[in-house]
Amino acid sequence: MIDLKGKRVLVIGERDGVNGPAIEACVKSAGAEILYAETLCFV
Amino acid sequence: MTFPAITAVANVLAHAPGLVRYGSKPLRDAAHAPATLEAIAARLRPYEDAVAYGPNQAFIGNLEPEALASLPRPWFDALDRGASSAGAFGDLISEGELLGLLKLCDRARLVHLDADTLSDAAARLAKRGIVTPAEMEALTPADGPAIDALCRGGEAIPLFLDGRTVGAIARGHEEDEALTANVLLENLAGKATGVLALRRLLTMVEGRVAPGDVDFVLAGSEEAVGDRYQRGGGNLAKAIAESAGLTGATGFDVKAFCASTLYAVFNAAALVQAGVFSRVAVVAGGSLAKLGMKYRAHVAKRMPILEDVLAGIAILVEHPRPGDPVIRLDAVGLHTIATGSAQQAIVEALVVKPLAKAGYRLSDVDRYATEMHNPEVTEPSGSGDVPRGNYRLIAALGAMRGEIPRDGINDFIARHGMPGYAPTQGHIASAVCYLAHALRAMRAGTMRRALFMAKGSLFLGRMTDASDGVSFLLERQGGNP
Fold this sequence. Notes:
Chain A has 43 residues and is α+β, with helices and mostly antiparallel strands. Chain A has one helix at residues 20-29; strands at residues 8-14, 33-40. Chain A has one domain (8-40).
């Protein structure tokens, strides 16, 4: 378990898995600061 | 209420190992590390292996996708040497034939092919019924020294066959970055494979529908045709229609990343339903940029580079005749802006909502066609089994809704899903590649309905963070319940 409060986070999500905005929302709710967020598509 | 029908679908492939080096990823890597090209050349597979490859046989209709589940992995080692390049849904043409088609489709006189390659392609394509001898004889071959001079001078890039330079494609302008030889090759590859699919479609309805009877063409490919002032100017639809002899048609392109072709299909149906046109063809050519997209993983795993084929598809949408499956325009699934990006919300928008509109539950759909990418292509690079991932999402949502028992997810996937079999040609792998199979099954009476769901990664273009997607139900007439 990682405590994300106060951490700075780079978010890389995946289109067919967990996408960037979803990860961003979770990480933000845990008190982290989002520096960068992107969703990738591998197909 | 009656809805427009899908009356014919052509699925085609073109083997293109010599063009893998011009795919986006190989091209970028080779610019920094020329040894990349040797590594790629060592892992390219011959035409016979591409024909004998199960997923390709499934794509062109000689094998049901479901049959792949019982084929031992890796599929590239389970080749069927008796397999034919003539599929029930269309052909898997050789690279020589593809080069001939590039020449035939080139109205700007930028493609140069040597005489042997051109005459061999003409004979093979004519034998398949794709071209007439007369139209191929009207093409002028180039000689070897002229081809070499064009390439040496930087005006053109070489075209290869079995490792030899047999032709070249020249740039369209000295300065225009939208008309470089590489861009034009990408666009022309999309056009040529679209023409291959549309011409094959016309042979399927020959005697009932003449080329001049098609009113309109919608194209949903991945290229960006244009010039420096309008890079994505478009209307490859009309260019393809012209090369397929649809003299009574015009058309336009639908652009929505990998969801383009599925958007085009339901828009074609809407145009027929509205009475604007009686007969609309949807067409999509292949994506050269995606050749060799995951070559690094394939080379590292010492397996064949499987992204060595361009795909094409053509779909005819008309008023229904007895036996034709219809597109349920009253139950189109759309990813609206308010839907958001959460996977649960996306699946609800594209699966649950359209089914609810039609009065169905998840288990009322015989087959779900989603992102049907061949897992053997994607797994080596860590991208996973994309269709299985999508099936799990659908089944998990069904479990949350109480439609599927929580321990019944795998059973649901086995009953309503199928293995991925499409080459990673995004817009074609995105569900539409299963239309031909569904049409065949519904005509045979072995399937009532299928749901087609495509996703579009429009966030890749940096104009939005939003996702996208579209879905529709294809249903046998009188398919209720």
